[in-house]
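Minutes, project check-in
Item: structure for the 296-residue chain
Input as provided by the requester:
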Amino acid sequence: MKGSIITRGDSYRIKVPLGKDAVTGKYTAHYETFRGPKKEAEKRLRQLLTELDKGIFIRPGKATLTEYLKSWLVDYVKPNLAPKTHELYAYICSRHIFPTLGNIALVDLKPTHLQHLYAQKQVSGLSNRTVQLIHVTLHKALKNAVKVSLLSRNIAEAVDTPKIHRREMRTMTETDLHLFLEMARDTEYYPLFYTAVFTGMRRSELLALIWGNVDLLLHQLSVTRSMQFVDNKVSFKQPKTVKSRRMIALSPSSVAVLMEHRKPKTDKGKPCTYHLLRITTLYSAIGTAPHYCLAQ
C-alpha cells in the first residue's frame, strides 16, 4: 500500500490509504498537512506506512486529555481497582492534571508537556512524592490508551520524575512504648493500641478485626480483611496479596488484654448490648471515620 505527497504552497499534504471501511464499504484515507522540507515529509510518509504495516497506526482523534481521563476513571479504574485507588486517581486528575493539561488533545500530548507540569508543581511547593503520584497516574492512564489503540506509545515513559529522598524511619524506644501504653491504659483504646504494638498489624487490618479472627486458646489471630473509608462510607476488602492474608502469634500479655476486653462491660450499671471497642475520636483524629473494632 503506497501513499502520496502533494505540494500545497509552502506545505505538503500527505495521504495514506487505509483501505475499505468495514461499515460503509467505502475507501478511506488518512491526511496530514506537513510543513518543512520535502525530505522530512517523505520521512513522515514512510513512518506512517510502517506503522500501518505493523498494525500500530492510530488515526488521530479529537478527544482531549480531560475527556479521556474521565472515561478511563469510569471504564477502567473504578471497576478494576480498589475504591481507595480510584479516589486517589480521581483527586490527582481533578486537582493537578485537568486544570493544566486537560484541554490538550490526547494525541497531541508530548513528553515536554509532562516535564513542564512536573517542574511547575515542584516550583509551587508540591512534594516530590506528590509529583510522582501525578506521574504514576498519567503513566497508567496512557498505558491503557496504548492498550486500547488510542495511542501508539506511552509518552510518560520518556519523562524523568523527581527523586524521593527517603527519610530514616523513627521508631519508639522500649521506654517510649511502656510510657505510651501506660498513658492509654485507662482509655477505651487500650486493647487496640496494645494489639497494634505487639502484632505490628496495619491500622486498616486492626480496625477490620472480628472476634472470629481471634483464637485466645491457641494464642493467635488471623488477618483476613482490611477496612477502608471512601466517599464517607466504611467498607471491607480482602488483602491484596497472599502474604497479607496471614496468621499472627499472640503474646501471653496480649491474650490477657484481649480476654479482659472481651468480658461483658456495663454502662451505668446496665449490661451493654455489645462488647466492642468503639472507635470515635481516634478515627477522626487519624483522618478516617468512626467505626467498630473487634466486632462480634
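Outcome recorded: Confidence is low (pLDDT under 50) at residues 267-296.
No further action items on this chain.
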